[in-house]
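Two proteins, back to back. First:
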Amino acid sequence: MYKEFIRCYELFRDRGVSDPLIETLRLFDVLSSGALRGTDLSFLDKQGIPLDEIVRRRKEGVPFEYVLGIAPFMGFTLYCTPETLIPRHDTELLAQTVLNLIERMERPVTVIDMGTGSGNIAVALAMNAAGVKVLASDVSAAAIEVARRNIEKYSLQERVLLFSGDLFAPLRGMEHEGNIDLVVCNPPYIPTKSLAKLDAGITDHEPLVALDAGTYGIDVFRRLLVEAADFIKPRGMLTFEMGAGQEKLVERLIEKNGQYENIEYFRYDGRIRVVSVVRKG
């Protein structure tokens, strides 16, 4: 919606409409059945966040999500801190793709959410798919604490279990090894040299460990394909997000790995952003 809002604002402005921002807000309020006029700002008072403080920190480049400590994802609100990436709308494609894949599976289903961050995908799966258990892991212990808050916020402690360590290391030796129905991952996929091209609001404030993926942006993909195969049961699935334009590199990695088949791609805004593969039986 953000892109559409900017486009509308620019059209009103360029056509010389008086107060284009107000006109754009009015248009979107009508289109959202009055949702904008019903916005509740009492949250700011409850959190003790004055508007001038929001403006000051935003002027410094701090993302709104970190200023407010919350972020939207899949229709619900999550706690969000600089210890985790800000959940983004394009990652909703990954979560929805996994939900659709789970619908094809017999319950109960056990999922590993690798690199859970704020826990946004784990929470989305547990809230929207009955009979699903999620093992959520992240290399950052600080991120796991944020995920814990979100899991407790929605009373999902019995459905989502948390682990911390390097990729699949904290899950080794468990009864789930070799019996997982699906592994989902939103890994780092930005090539190191491309980090400088990102908005300063991202590189100055969001955790680089969750962004930097080496020279070609595929370092984590390599490890993910190898290590996930030890956990996914035959005919189970691996689904992960990738950067726009990385599908050829990813396809070569999958073929070279040799443990997966049935590659499916899913698009966001016309670009391939999610891939799903089946563990060979």
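And the second protein:
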Amino acid sequence: MTYNDYRRQMRGRFIAYRRTHYPLEHELFDPRREYVFKPEYDFCNLFEMSLDKLLPCGRRHRWFRSMASSQALAVSIFGTILKRGDLLLLADLSDRNGQPLLPDFILAGEPVFDYRVTTLNERTPTSVDLFLPGRNGHVAIECKLMEREVGPCSRVPNFCNGEYTPAGCWLTRRGVAYWQHIPKLFAWDAQQPQSPCSIRRPYQLVRTLLAAAIDEQGQVYGRPTALLVYDANNPFFAEGREARLFHEVQAAITPPTVLKRVSWQTIARALEALGRYGDLLGYLEDKYGIVA
């Protein structure tokens, strides 16, 4: 399946979902976009409207109200798992390589959606979709659905030519601490020029791992883990370009840091095995085509 085929399939599914579940509620939707809710009804884009309370006030992605929103999907799935007390099922899952997803993870605080990272000295703090504070290391989760890419550096091409020099990085010149910490997690030398820059394309993966790893003292805390969750039906993330990029980044990581990925479908299978998520699984299949 090509990405364009996938995109058409998803859009058709969203439109069918609206016509089935909201056949007469036209006032809920943006009149210009058939599967996008109006801003005041964005909570309708969640599995249960009460899950809206899990997002800090005002902390929604720009297109949270679109049925294509990966943030809305993340809150629907992980929010329901948290609500039903089954977060530890993530520890029992296997990643793409058959290894335990979060071995020995012990939750040590409240999970936070759209977690703002304060340890990287950014003027506008970056955020991760879900942050799990752990006793032995934190987990930062980045979620994708219909996106075409993980997320490259937004400074290219307007502020950067895509190459790296120790004194020339736009981030470093503004005091952002990415390259101060990257050598603690990756086999990338911050003192050597790079063409292209190592983080140009996998920027979002790198910052997700930095979010999990760096504590308030600028040190690597425990065994940090970055987890990428993706739609196995999306050809770019299943075995395509972004899957290859993920493996390139994974190969550059140095212990004790960890980068893993898992599909929504794998999580759905784990929910099915628990036997009490039929309502959520029906919602995921009907709306997103995510089948256990």
